[in-house]
Write a structure and sequence with these properties.
89 residues, alpha+beta, two-stranded antiparallel sheet, 2 strands, 51% helix
Length: 89
């Protein structure tokens, strides 16, 4: 899975994570996480809401997967498979 996919999955599971927490959990630099989050927001996969100094993320589960061969698949379907109890097992 790409770094973008890993970050998106982490945010789906932990929407209140800070960039630092994501960095530590995913073994990527904060700068890289920040760029990926911006990329995901620009692609309409994420919404970012600032509350004071914190950011909270919401995954746009209605977004289509951007790969041409998979464009009929919604993000909710992919995340559902990856976050199900059997996928975590």
């Amino acid at each position: 899975m790409s770094s973008h996919g890993v970050v998106l999955l982490h945010i789906a599971r932990n929407p209140g994570s800070t960039l630092r927490e994501m960095s530590e959990a995913l073994d990527l630099t904060e700068r890289r996480i920040s760029q990926i989050v911006r990329d995901l927001a620009d692609a309409d996969y994420l919404a970012i809401q600032r509350v004071g100094r914190r950011s909270f993320y919401t995954v746009n589960e209605s977004a289509s997967v951007s790969h041409p061969a998979l464009e009929s698949i919604l993000l909710r379907d992919v995340l559902g498979l990856l976050t199900s109890p059997t996928a975590q097992g």
